[in-house]
Amino acid sequence: MYGDYMDNHENIATRVPMGNGFSEERTRESGSRYADKQTRDTAGRRVSGGGSKKGGGRNRLFVFLTILLLALVLCAVAAIALLQRKREGTEQENDAGIAQIAAEDGRTGDDSGTDLGEQAQGVDADDQADAPGASGTPDQVDASESSDVSAEGQQDGGDSTQLVDLGILDSPYAALMDAQTGELLAVKRGDEKIFPASMTKILTVLTAIEHIPDLDVTIHMEEDFYEDLYDEDASRAGFEPGEEAVIRDLLYGALLPSGAECCIELARQAAGAESAFVELMNQKVADLGLVQTHFTNCTGLHNAEQFSTCTEIARILQNAMQNETFRNVFTTHHYSVAPTEIHPDGFTFWSTLFKATADEVVTGGEIIGGKTGYTDEAGHCLASAAEIYGKDYILVTAGWAEDPENELYHIDDAFRAYNALGDALS
Prior knowledge:
The chain is of the alpha+beta class. The chain folds into 2 domains: about 1-110; about 155-425, DD-peptidase/beta-lactamase superfamily (Beta-lactamase, 3-Layer(aba) Sandwich), CATH 3.40.710. It is about 50% helix and about 15% strand. Helix 2 runs antiparallel to helix 3 (about 55-130), helix 5 packs parallel to helix 8 (about 260-270) and helix 7 (about 245-255) packs across helix 8. The chain is elongated, with a radius of gyration of 42 Å. It starts with a helix and ends with a helix.
């Protein structure tokens, strides 16, 4: 556009200033013709012995026309000079504008690079703080961490670029994701480290499914780990030491009522020991490209070295939901175990999410599954999935709320977020 502009102005500079259609060459030619005529007239007057009144009039006319032509030439020259100066001034202004834009772009690039560098340093420092031996609450762990690496500036609930404002939630940490594409639709401190509590069991069940070849084998629950679970006051599904159990039943027992005994037995069946199983879990984390997640146990019991983020828990759940067996377990409301010697009538357990809700309907669809979690250090957590207008979405919330209206605020938050999402998509 700038080139076209200058071409047009150059054409104008060539055409306009020539004055009444005369070129410089034509002006000089006209002047020569008038000079020749003056010479002839003068010669004629000399021959005739002096000029007549009529000849004097012609001379005055000639002088007048000559002065007029000279004035026109001077005006044309002045106009050309003025136009040239104006054009040069425009070029200088354009060049200055371009230079200013380039300078601003350069400053923006430098600032961005500085921010990213400082941010990266902050993440590295926090990773070191959370390496083995680190301790403290999530707020202590994240005191110096940037609010959100993947969605900068969304610490207080997000900005206008988010599909849903998660500032409406009581939970201090949250991430909302499109389960099909993996796109983050909204975050609230989504990349800050949290303690995952029993949301850990999502990866426990997925890892067990992927490493136990036959899920319909009947085993006997081992007895040596129960005392530790009693001491930790860990949640249990109801399987007793030495009781017969089908491995598939343990999957439901781990996810629905959050049974810690089911997790330990699944770990031993898959890898021989919980420690070896946790290595498989962390290998899965690495395979998914997650860099802010680390596990030390399969139950979600608190450990300062076991941490994740809402965004990365959402990515774990997204991957797990692609496994048909996991999806069937995760979306079940309640499950009944066949009779055994210890439980001759069998027993039934419920999803901790659906047991706490009277209705799973949200705007445009329904909540289809979820895994709750709680420890004194982690606060209330929930990793859930909903189907809205025919598509699956994932929401992960965590942390202590300051002044919630309901002590089950993590479940209330799920309904708030999904209803807002449904409204936004409608």
